[in-house]
Design a protein that fits this description.
Length: about 250
């Protein structure tokens, strides 16, 4: 129960990796805040959290919107009085190519959720994280190191590369305040996003592209996120932890 009496906010926790992450934190004793723009999904996850006997708050939020992001942090502090861990996990993926000009179709949208949203949430949470000497974990992607993991989604990779850089900037700036900032960089994970990104490929074919011939499960990514946020990782900051079934070796 490493997170007893701690408060953890996870964005994009209405499904997939974010859902597995809030459930893992609740199992470890945390009270959790589910932030997602899909309120229906978020409420279903909240019901599962209650099985661990922990307090849970659902806040319907689009993390790319300043007012909504600010409200999410304010409601968290009003309800719990503290914030110990922020997981910037909300993300979207959209296709686009240079060759036909489609690269610009979703550029602003993808960057504003995957990158700006994480910077905005971290910025709003910083005073509370300094108070609790807390931690931030960003969900990046191994695509920043290996294009094999996702072809045809350049804006997504650009945003995640920016997120890796932000992780290092934030880790450096906040280190004197005792706040650690890290990222996890998954390869293919068995979630709605992986399936949607490979519309013409079935899930078993995605697994074939990795060295270990499998997709990661959301719970496996949650294990690493919880580790990075925990005291067991007290010397880890500014890192991006690859969890890619060896796809970057291919
Ligand atoms: P998912 O689609 O199951 O989960 C993403 C969640 O984010 C959804 O619940 C969605 O409603 C929410 N969301 C999207 N935009 C939002 C916004 N503007 N505001 C608030 N919530 C928003 O997919 P997932 O695979 O669990 O994705 C989680 C994270 O993992 C993403 O950042 C994604 O880029 C990253 N990732 C996924 C994979 C993969 O293969 N699935 C690989 C590497 C990285």
């Amino acid at each position: 129960m490493q997170f007893e009496n701690k408060v953890v906010l996870v964005t994009g926790s209405g499904s997939g990796i974010g859902e597995a992450t809030v459930l893992h934190f609740a199992k470890e004793g945390a009270d959790v805040v589910i932030v997602d723009y899909n309120e229906g999904n978020a409420r279903k996850v909240a019901e599962k959290v209650k099985e661990f006997g922990k307090r849970v708050l659902v806040i319907k939020t689009d993390v790319s919107k300043d007012v909504e992001a600010r409200t999410a942090i304010e409601k968290t502090i009003n309800e719990f009085g503290r914030l110990d861990v922020l997981v910037n996990n909300a993300g979207i993926a959209r296709e686009g190519l240079l060759i036909d000009g489609t690269i610009m179709n979703h550029f602003d949208e993808v960057l504003s959720v995957n990158l700006r949203g994480a910077v905005l949430m971290t910025s709003l949470a910083t005073p509370y994280l300094i108070k609790s000497k807390g931690a931030v974990v960003n969900t990046s992607s191994i695509v920043t190191k290996s294009l094999n993991s996702l072809r045809g989604f350049p804006c997504y990779g650009i945003a995640k590369a920016g997120l890796d850089h932000f992780t290092r900037e934030a880790a450096y700036e906040l280190a004197p305040s005792g706040v650690r900032v890290n990222a996890v960089s998954p390869g293919p994970v068995n979630t709605n996003m992986a399936i949607n990104c490979n519309l013409d490929v079935d899930a078993s074919k995605i697994a074939e592209t990795t060295a270990l011939k499998k997709c990661a499960l959301p719970e496996e990514v949650a294990n690493v996120i919880v580790f990075l946020a925990s005291d067991k990782a007290s010397s880890v900051t500014g890192s991006s932890y690859a969890l890619d079934n060896g796809i970057s070796l291919m």
